[in-house]
Write a structure and sequence with these properties.
- The chain is mostly helical.
- It has one domain.
- Helices cover 67% and strands 2% of the residues.
- Strands 1-2 form a two-stranded antiparallel ribbon.
- Strand 1 and strand 2 form a beta hairpin.
- Helix 9 runs antiparallel to helix 11.
- It is globular and about 60 Å long.
Length: 370
């Protein structure tokens, strides 16, 4: 980590961001993209889906930080941040399903499924290998159903107690999880939310409050152990999914197998930021800033390369090394362009108009004319 001056977490402004967390966002998004190439490194299983677990823990951390520092317009700002890009790519998926359904396999242009996807309502649909899965039109959007439930829980917590909103919201998340377990055999919605991923948001909340209590001076003394823990946690995520038998990783609760290493990854990276070891590699930070768009767009880029270009040039199959590199690189490039020229200026303009005239907490401010 490059040394960079940074105040303690307890004294940071709401619009400041932790670059280390942005780099972890980049790590998470690229990992998910790598997973969807189906490329296998020698001697390893398919890995990278743990990036979603990292995203969930980061989300819990960031939401706790936002509610502690500046909770005004919370739900409105989260909707502005999450919904427009997701709806845009969902409509794009629907359009492709209408024009070229052969490119999407089981995804179909169904109006009811479109509405449910847009409203974050889980539903079951056929999977390529047989059986059914609970996925929206834009398949990677399944994680946003969990995100929206978490946001709604915290917003409900704000209505009950502004001071204790985070913990009231955590209570709602736990209640939703237990209720989902009770009705999982009767409802697709309950079956979807009866998943240990729900706990990973809580891990992020706990990470925030632990780091907040550490303080900058203690963080300075913890730099070397925190750096070692950060690197070890990232390596553990790769090895746990890449080296363990796939049947084990599928059977084990993701909150235990991937959520706990993600917790230590986020906590240790935050401690390093607080101690002054905050990453200043601008390209990595930029990928982190664009990570949400990267998460949404990589599906189109990777499968576009695989199902269109590789039909003519077989060496571009994304399950092969060159195709995987091309698919991921194209995803990153497209995400950065969309982020810089569409997402960031649009987001900050909408937040100024509808979200309390403040820029996005996770992103650097940008001046937009008009």
């Amino acid at each position: 980590m490059a040394t960079r001056s940074l105040k303690s977490e307890g004294s940071m402004k709401p619009t400041s961001k932790l670059n280390n967390l942005q780099v972890l966002r980049a790590f998470a998004a690229v990992s998910v993209a790598f997973y969807h190439t189906y490329y296998l490194l020698p001697g390893m299983q398919r890995f990278g889906s743990f990036g979603v677990d990292v995203f969930f823990v980061i989300s819990g951390y960031i939401m706790a930080r936002i509610l502690h520092k500046s909770p005004d317009f919370f739900l409105r700002r989260r909707i502005i941040r999450i919904v427009p890009p997701y709806w845009s790519f969902t409509f794009l998926t629907f359009a492709i399903a209408v024009v070229s359904p052969q490119l999407l396999h089981t995804t179909r242009a169904d109006g009811v499924e479109l509405v449910k996807s847009l409203l974050f309502i889980p539903y079951a649909k056929p999977l390529p290998g047989g059986g059914k899965g609970i996925l929206p039109l834009l398949s990677v959007g399944w994680s946003l159903n969990f995100e929206m439930l978490f946001y709604l829980s915290l917003a409900a917590g704000l209505l009950i107690s502004r001071k204790k909103a985070v913990w009231v919201g955590v209570g709602f998340v736990l209640a939703a999880l237990m209720t989902s377990f009770a009705f999982a055999t009767r409802s697709d919605i309950a079956k979807f939310f009866a998943h240990s991923n729900m706990l990973e948001f809580i891990f992020g909340v706990v990470a925030y409050y632990i780091c907040r209590e550490i303080g900058a001076s203690r963080a300075q003394r913890m730099r070397i152990p925190a750096l070692c823990l950060c690197l070890a946690s990232a390596l553990a995520l790769i090895c746990l999914q890449g080296l363990l038998p796939e049947t084990f990783s599928l059977a084990a609760p993701s909150a235990i197998l991937f959520g706990i290493p993600s917790f230590f990854l986020i906590a240790s990276a935050t401690i390093l930021s607080m101690a002054g070891w905050d990453t200043n590699v601008s390209f990595l930070i930029l990928i982190g800033d664009a990570s949400y768009i990267l998460y949404l767009v990589h599906f189109f880029c990777i499968y576009g390369v695989d199902r269109i270009l590789a039909a003519r040039w077989h060496w571009l199959r994304v399950a092969a090394p060159i195709g995987a590199i091309v698919g991921i690189s194209l995803s990153v490039l497209v995400a950065i362009v969309l982020h810089l020229f569409i997402e960031r200026p649009t987001l900050n303009a909408m937040l100024r108009k509808f979200g309390g005239n403040r820029p996005a907490t996770e992103l650097p401010p940008v001046h937009v004319a008009g």
